[in-house]
Design goal:
Strand order of the largest sheet: 1-2-3-4-6-5
Order of helices and strands: HEEEEHEEHH
Number of strands: 6
Number of domains: 1
Strand content: 25-35%
Number of helices: 4
Largest sheet: 6 strands, antiparallel
Distance between the termini: 38 Å
Shape: globular
CATH class: Alpha Beta
Helix content: 25-40%
Length: 127
C-alpha cells in the first residue's frame, strides 16, 4: 500500500478541523473542489481531494499579523479572482518547508471567526 503524501495528510487534517467548528458544512461548488462554509458563506477553500500537483488551501485573514505570516510561507500568494484584495490568502500544502498543520488550523479558525455569526463564535469560545 502506498503512503499518503504529506500534503494530502495536511489537507485531511485541516478539513477535519474545519468541519469540527460549530455550524459548518462541506460543499463542492466546482466539481471536485471542496469548500467549507458557515452560515452559507465560504471560510476555507480546500481544492480537490486528490490534488497532489498544487495542493493548498485559501483562507480569509483580516488580522494583519496572521495575513503577513501566511503570505511569508514559501509559495503563498493573495488568492486569485480578486479575493486577495479582501484578505484571502492561498497557502500551499507542501509537507516540507510549508506551514505546519497546527498553524494552518489556526488560520482556518481565524477565517471562520471572520465569517461566522457571533452566536457560533460564542459557541466555539464556550467549548
Amino acid at each position: 500500500m502506498a503512503a499518503i503524501p504529506a500534503p494530502l495528510k495536511a489537507r485531511a487534517a485541516v478539513r477535519a478541523f474545519a468541519l469540527g467548528l460549530p455550524g459548518t458544512v462541506e460543499e463542492f461548488p466546482w466539481e471536485d473542489d471542496a469548500v467549507i462554509k458557515v452560515n452559507k458563506k465560504i471560510f476555507v477553500f480546500l481544492g480537490a481531494e486528490g490534488n497532489t500537483e498544487t495542493p493548498g488551501i485559501s483562507v480569509k485573514l483580516k488580522d494583519e499579523e496572521a495575513h503577513g505570516h501566511a503570505l511569508a510561507v514559501p509559495g503563498a500568494a493573495p488568492t486569485g479572482y480578486g479575493l486577495g484584495r479582501s484578505g484571502w490568502v492561498s497557502v500551499p500544502l507542501t509537507g516540507d518547508g510549508g506551514a505546519p498543520v497546527e498553524l494552518l488550523c489556526d488560520w482556518v479558525e481565524e477565517s471562520y471567526r471572520t465569517i461566522a455569526p457571533k452566536r457560533l463564535v460564542a459557541e466555539l469560545d464556550a467549548a
